Amino acid sequence: MSAARRPPVRSSKKSDQVPVQPRSRAEHYAAGKALRETCPRDAHAAWKAPSDRRDAVELVLGAEKGRVPDLLPLRHGRMVRSAFTFFRGAALTMATDLASTPSSGIRVQCCGDAHLCNFGGFATPERKVIFSINDLDETLPAPWEWDVKRLAASFVVACRDKGLKDSAAKDVVMTCVRTYRESMAEFSEMKTLELWYRALGAEELIAGLPPKLRKRAVKRIEKEQAKSRGEEMFPKLAELKGEIPVIKDQLPTIFHAKGHPPGEVQQAVHDAFTAYRATLPGSYQSLLDRYELRDAAIKVVGVGSVGTLCWVLLLTAGEGDPLFLQVKEARASVLEPFAGASVFPNHGQRVVNGYRLMQPASDIFLGWSQGPKRHFFLRQLRDMKLSVMVETFGRAEMDIYAGWCARALALSHARSGNSAMLSGYMGKSDAFDRAIAAFSVAYADQNEKDHAALDRAVRKGKVKAVFEEER
After folding, report:
1. Which terminus of the chain, N or C, has fewer Cβ atoms within 10 Å?
2. Would you say 154 and 189 are in contact if contact means Cβ atoms under 8 Å apart?
3. Average pLDDT over residues 264-272
4. Integer Cα distance of 140 and 138 in angstroms
């Protein structure tokens, strides 16, 4: 394979650094444009599975090494439900595939799992709602195209899941990539601090919606703002045992560790919590000290994360004053085998660094820790977090949302990478847009084949799956 087709693996000592050399914007733009000679934009259009590609089911099972075995059937059940849920859980599969595709050689802080459900709204410390990437478990410096291709392909898979034709799906992807390209050009004109302070506010995005959709969006934000407050969450997630607040067991997704009844926090959790506190700035340590750790329970989350060790912690600062923290296991990024190892010794720290680089504002309780043979990062369980209800989208909503996600991804990449060089490579025409649209349709076909392979393995009993009731 030529050098243009396989992105170079950087030294692990530099893989979390994305340097920008002090040259003029015009020089950076020209340098990006020159990269088209070695990696033409239309080269991104093709996808064909390599002859030595691993079996699709093996790739799924290969991502599960070190996970909690009892939870894996639940992961399989969630992944096999549809081609779309399979795509969400197959980050390692696509990372393996993307490593064989063309790369311009420009690196940014990548999300690593930039599908459309990993974007959403959340609150800044100033309590403003902004829109950005909100799941960065796989973040790592890597070729920027990988994020763009995963995001674009996710829209084709989601459109098909909604019964939309491929012609409509390609239009949605064209909107997505065009918005990314034009936003990158806009961000490349900004001064450094102006770019760093830039955020996509909910008001800004909603203002561009048709009146009917705008009204729905405002109602949704108001509803989620109420649900996200700790005192509003308490009745759903916790209860009082006498005078002691504890987390409710809600099988199969929330439950206490075996041998530890509600209200009894394991010593390992206490130790990890103490280590976490040390990673916070002094002022936030003082804030955290106002709370007392009351209970801890295991929480099964998402699709791709099922089987990793995740917890929800209940803390209180007094009666009617709860705080819920989420503890998520941080494993090696799916990008590491192809982009180089992280410079951080703790994968929780890698994730936290990614949040702070890619999000305009991050949770004040964001920190990391370590337990026996596992790394973790912590943040608030919910903080006005608005997840996207893709299942309700029609053609128009999908197109609008594609623009939002693309603009958010461009802003995240511009914060860590060389926006002028990226803009120079993509240019002003739709050549890159058309190439990514073609790739996305071809990769959606691959995803369907892989999903079908897992479905066959489940039906034949080769892979055990547990299915939940649809909610």
Report:
1. C
2. no
3. 92
4. 7
